[in-house]
Design brief:
heterodimer; A: two-stranded antiparallel sheet; 13 helices; B: 517 residues; alpha/beta; six-stranded mixed β-sheet
Chain lengths: 352, 517
């Protein structure tokens, strides 16, 4: 039998490098996987990880995918630091998209109003926050685990979105497709660079990452978050209000996920569809951990995971690989990351 | 000594932990000889290498160098099971019992070959009667007092018929009466020819109980002595390697000081089935005095302390008044603002965050004073300087403000935490177990700091199990037993024996006679 034995002094360097090691192992496993599937492994990996980045457009697409990941992951990481396990960023993202779309669809922007987009961003944030406040109430009032409630609410949000686009919000001139009207031009985020889809959201996400770093490393609130996450009893002793931190981290992560959702419908998509997100809210969990819950690490990790989305699309178009390869890569990355963390802290011993 | 084969001989035992500085060893060339029928004391400050040495004997750790001779034969002790097979038993300082299981079930779990439960129960009864350790095998452990729990551990070791019994600080949780009972048992065991290796830092006990003593210091052999003819002070000085400064206490407190802590009709309502709720407690602590609360662990101290610190809120605001203000509904932050500072019993994991630096830990409870936080931002320069000041003023041996809290020894961390609280210039200071597990040198400086605080006009409340400490510090002493807090009586009018009886309570005597019946 194998058992795990704690290493007395886990190497700090190894802990810092574990994301890099995990990425390396994922690529290696990818090579083997492609070879087994009968593709030329080197060519496939090139198509997957290099080709998407060889043009300005490709790079701008990378930021399009990285933006929602970064927005969601920063919020999640702040919660994770405080031991608040919001797993439902996907649902909060959807509800942000729904709330923002509501503003775009029903407040007619015919008068060329400049306030439409800000109002949509606000509605998006509020939509995500409202959805995240449900697990907060359930946790603080009834001691229900936010892991379960936030995850289950994701499916409620998804079904609510489907009902809207199949029912009341369906475009009457949309040939019965389950999607809303296209938004008016005033309700669409203009691209920052002509010919690309690089939008204001990317700048916002960068600012959020910077803000997250500032909050965690410079403010007393960030200090309280870290203490609660490391040693709850010490936080109680010091008199930190853990209920307040729970509210704050859930509202913050919900709000950021909501903004991410709004940024999708008002940006690259331009209408409300059932496919607002290819799982950005879930992938953001991987991003947060790959970035070691540090805002700058998360920034790099969001680019890495964005590449798995982009590469999956490229490989599907150019080589006919199934699009599920994206999920496989993301899954392997998380698997290797967790395995590296465990094996850096523990060693395997054979025997009793 | 001629003609008797020593039970155990250790020769030149050396152990170095990975990550320790070269030249800094947990055990460095230690020799030890134990004779049959001998009670041998192993003395030393925290970190002197006592635990490492006994763990090597019991097979938990393995020596890098040196040899072990068991009854004249050279042995390698691979693990605790091998040690038990040789005839070595050990009673640990911290009990490893399952609260919800019975005495017999707990003992069965610790034996290599427990056998049938009914047979085991009768063996337990016969062993417990032979050695004066009354125990009822069918009682669940959660209903036992601390002294009774220790009996479970001792009986468990004795069932293996050990010829060497190692006891690691066995009396730190016992009342004086329970200590007497334990010593009678140990003397009986020695009379049967068993060897006992007795680890303690309570020097008076060692003088009464032990035949010989070995003193360790910094991982090395420091001295041998005959405890009967050596004074406790001399032994303490052997342990710390320098002269001991005893706390300088001026006899009379200002009795007319303002009452800064007033407890009135305080009762707690914890839902935890293993909690001891405090019932209708009343106490006041005045400016300039030290009041001690004595009691065996688990008699409501934890509940009382969390009600005083504000970690648990009280049903009525007036149950606790801090500096005249009703504070029962206030959390720790608001109570600190009224002038409270608090040192909890658990240093690592409540009083300090293990993974954080000393600078961060200075901020943990110090955020309210000294301008460490301005407009929501942490002022790191100031925090570091505060940590450095604490380290310097209270003689904390640490590499600097950047050291992690968990890298400090227990005594140094306690000095840091008490220093941090004192630096906040509180009007009321509540300290739980100020020197539990702290070496003699650090304990003396902590005691002096507490006395100085009181003399400068702070009200100090000390909750402790150590009666010597309470008598050294307190102007008045109260006792908590079964959640009931006695009246605080002037220490000068009381004695260790009387307080000890109150700590044991009538309840414990009944429990013992019930179990032996």
């Amino acid at each position: 039998m194998l058992r795990l034995e704690a290493r007395p002094h886990p190497s700090t360097a190894a802990l810092l490098l574990s994301p890099v090691l995990a990425i390396g192992l994922t690529l290696l496993a990818g090579l083997i996987l492609f070879a087994l599937l009968g593709f030329d492994p080197v060519k496939t990996l090139t198509a997957y990880f290099i080709k998407p980045l060889d043009s300005l457009y490709g790079l701008s697409e990378l930021t399009v995918k990285a933006t929602p990941l970064l927005l969601c992951a920063i919020g999640l990481a702040l919660g994770f630091r405080a031991n608040i396990w919001n797993i439902g960023a996907e649902g909060q993202l959807i509800m942000g998209a729904v709330a923002g779309s509501g503003v775009a669809l029903f407040l007619r922007p015919e008068h060329g109003a400049a306030w439409v987009l800000p109002a949509m961003f606000l509605a998006g944030a509020l939509g995500g926050m409202a959805w995240a406040s449900i697990p907060a109430v359930l946790k603080l009032r009834f001691n229900a685990s936010e892991i379960l409630t936030s995850l289950m609410l994701t499916y409620v949000a998804d079904l609510f979105l489907r009902w809207l686009v199949n029912g009341p919000w369906r475009d009457p001139e949309g040939y019965n497709f389950p999607q809303s009207r296209m938004f008016e031009p005033d309700a669409i985020i203009p691209p920052l660079l002509d010919g690309t889809r690089l939008g204001f959201g990317a700048v916002l996400a960068l600012a959020v990452a910077l803000g997250g770093w500032f909050l965690l490393s410079r403010t007393f609130l960030g200090f309280q978050i870290k203490v609660i996450g490391l040693t709850a009893a010490a936080a109680g002793y010091a008199g930190f209000n853990s209920a307040r931190i729970t509210w704050m981290s859930l509202l913050l992560s919900g709000g950021l996920a909501g903004i991410a959702g709004l940024n999708e419908v008002a940006g690259p998509i331009g209408q409300l569809t059932p496919f607002v997100s290819p799982g950005y809210g879930f992938t953001a969990i991987i991003v947060a951990f790959l970035g070691r819950l540090h805002p700058f690490g998360i920034l790099l990790a969001s680019l890495m995971l964005a590449l798995t989305y982009l590469g999956g699309e490229t490989a599907q178009i150019s080589l006919g690989l199934p699009v599920a390869v994206t999920s496989v890569f993301q899954g392997m990355l998380l698997f290797f990351l967790l395995a590296c963390e465990v094996l850096i802290r523990y060693r395997l011993r054979a025997g009793r | 000594m001629q003609g008797v084969t020593p039970r155990l001989i250790l020769k030149d035992i050396t152990k170095q932990f990975p990550g320790q500085f070269p030249g800094c060893r947990a055990n460095d060339g230690i020799d030890l000889t134990l004779l049959p029928g001998e009670i041998h004391a192993l003395l030393g400050e925290n970190g002197a290498g006592k635990s490492t040495l006994v763990k090597i004997i019991y097979g938990i750790l393995h020596a890098d160098e040196g040899e072990i001779l068991w009854e004249g034969k050279r042995v390698a002790i691979a693990n605790p099971a091998a040690a038990r097979a040789l005839g070595i038993g050990m009673v640990f300082q911290h009990f490893s019992l399952f609260e919800s299981l019975t005495v017999a079930e707990n003992i069965a779990l610790g034996l290599d070959k427990p056998g049938k439960m009914a047979a085991l129960a009768s063996r337990i009864i016969s062993v417990s009667e032979r050695y004066g350790l009354p125990l009822d095998p069918s009682r669940p452990v959660h209903s036992l007092s601390v002294g009774e729990r220790q009996r479970v551990e001792i009986v468990r070791s004795l069932l293996g018929e050990p010829r060497l019994l190692i006891m690691d600080e066995p009396t730190s949780v016992l009342t004086p009466q329970e200590v007497e009972r334990l010593f009678a048992t140990l003397r009986l065991l020695a009379l049967e020819g068993r060897s006992i290796l007795y680890i303690s830092h309570k020097l008076e006990e060692i003088r009464v109980l032990c035949d010989r003593a070995t003193v360790l210091r910094g991982g090395k052999l420091a001295a041998f002595c005959d405890p009967a003819t050596t004074s406790a002070r001399q032994m303490a000085e052997m342990m710390i390697g320098s002269e001991l400064t005893s706390p300088n206490r001026h006899p009379e407190a200002l009795s007319e000081g303002e009452a800064l802590l007033e407890i009135h009709g305080l009762h707690t309502t914890s839902n935890d089935p293993f909690a001891t709720n405090v019932k209708d407690a009343a106490l006041s602590v005045r400016a300039g005095e030290i009041v001690g609360i004595a009691g065996v662990a688990g008699n409501g101290q934890a509940e009382l302390l969390s009600a005083l610190s504000g970690e648990v809120l009280l049903p009525e605001p007036g149950m606790v008044r801090i500096c005249g203000q009703a504070a029962g509904h206030m959390g720790p932050r608001a109570r600190r603002r009224l002038g409270l500072a608090f040192v909890p019993e658990e240093r690592l994991g409540r009083g300090a965050v293990p993974e954080m630096t000393l600078a961060d830990n200075a901020l943990l409870s110090g955020y309210g004073s000294g301008g460490l936080v301005r407009r929501g931002l942490v002022r790191f320069g100031k925090t570091r300087r505060t940590a450095e000041k604490i380290i310097e003023r209270f003689g904390v041996s640490a590499r600097g403000y950047g050291s992690q809290a968990r890298s400090l020894s227990g005594g140094n961390l306690q000095k840091f935490i008490i220093g941090r609280e004192i630096m906040q210039k509180p009007r009321l200071l509540i300290v739980a177990q100020p020197t539990w597990g702290v070496d003699a040198g650090a304990a003396a400086s902590i005691h002096q700091a507490l006395i100085d605080m009181a003399r400068s006009g702070t009200a100090v409340l000390v909750v402790s199990q150590d009666l010597d400490e309470l008598f050294a510090l307190s102007d008045r002493i109260a006792v908590i037993h079964g959640g009931i807090l006695s009246e605080a009586i002037p220490a000068a009018n009381s004695s260790i024996e009387r307080i000890g009886l109150l700590m044991g309570g009538v309840y414990d005597q009944e429990g013992a006679s019930h179990a032996s019946a």
